[in-house]
Amino acid sequence: MQAAIHPFFDPATRTVTYVVYQAGRRECAIIDSVLDYDPKSGRTSTTSADKVIAFVREHELRVEWILETHAHADHLSAAPYLKRQLGGRIAIGQNIRRVQGVFKKLFNVEPEFRLDGSQFDHLFEDSETFAIGGLTGKAIHVPGHTPADMAYQIGDSVFVGDTLFMPDVGTARCDFPGGDAHELYRSIHKLLDLPSDTRLFMCHDYPPEGRGPAWETTVRAEREGNIHVHNGVDEDQFVATRQARDATLAMPTLILPSVQVNIRAGEFPPPEANGVRYLKIPLNAI
Ligand SMILES: [Fe+2]
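Above: inputs. Below: predicted complex with fe (ii) ion.
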């Protein structure tokens, strides 16, 4: 079944947020929302999320799901803000518990912070199905970038998270804690085994010089032209390419703020005795 898809591209983090629904029905899902964050001042703002809210209200949609493909390392999630404004259930892959374990240690998070994913309303298992009105969704576990990555197949489209990027950009990095290029190769092949006309929607785009941002492609186009995993590239070749590229990449600007917030389903850390909430910077730890 054809899903109606409205993208919102955030130029600051190059993230694409999607509202997904079925034309003629009110139920919708929001995928990978962005809370704007200025690292210079430590200020958050809701300009990006408010555009999503305006679209949902204007089209009289009812939010059933607020989906995260993974705990992002490049932007803060606006999921709790969207939930307070619009309702819906915040969901992510069940392996978020492993990611929470890694970062609870790194940030020496308060002892009461639970490692059971209970900060989210729902944790998806691999292949679990869910409904958005008349559309059927399926969560597909696609680890590699992080252990918890999920892709969401909804109607005739798949929201791939951080696995594939546009064919001329390649694939997601695998050098964060718990990342694994071998796993990413196998996860990507789960997606490339889908019918060749399947529409694929990216989580990010980092366009090369000379083209503007893009986020939609197909299984066929990825198989034929993805610079890292086109037809004929085997697992060992892919892993060598991926690891060589990862060795050249700096950490994302917002990795430390993002992860601390996103393992809490987008909530900020609890306030300290003076009423202020803080993010931490671990020194020489990543
Ligand atoms: Fe990511």
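Residues 169 and 206 are 7 Å apart (CA to CA).
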